[in-house]
Amino acid sequence: MKRLFLSLTAKNTYILFFGNIITGFLAFLFITIVFKNLPTSDFGVYSAAINFILVTSSLLDLGISKTVVKFTALQNDLKQYNKSLQYAQTGLFLRFIISLFIGILLLLFSKSITHVLFRTSDQTIIPFCVVSIISFSLFDILIFVLQGNKKFWDSVFVSFISSSTRVLLLGLIIFIGIPVS
Prior knowledge:
With about 180 residues, the protein is mainly α. It has helices at about 1-5, 10-35, 40-60, 65-75, 80-110, 110-120, 125-150, 150-175.
């Protein structure tokens, strides 16, 4: 039993679990700061936008992330590092192109989308969503590429950088005094 808890798979699981705890804490900190600095109505619009970003990004994955993990790991096990790199590059390219295409569609129909989905006339929401969807998609696939290459600490680091950047930028905006609503 002791061998099971000290196996390489278990250690890698601990690394990813540790990273998820840190990322979850940073997400909680981010939401807390936003909630304390936005009026209730603006927080509702912000929450709707964040949920829209997360759902859209998840739908745009189309199984690409899982495929990249599977095939990069397989090619690495077979010592086919060039093929592994090709799978990783293809995954990054596909996620970027799909996200960019959807982002362009969102921008083209931003007025009606803003009115129907977010019940507001604020036209800055859709560009914020587009940039966030593209960024989230690229960070997400990069994390999976790193995991497929068994670089678990690197994937935790990328996840940490992504989460902490949001908190730091928000803190900077509040510190400078730029209104967030």
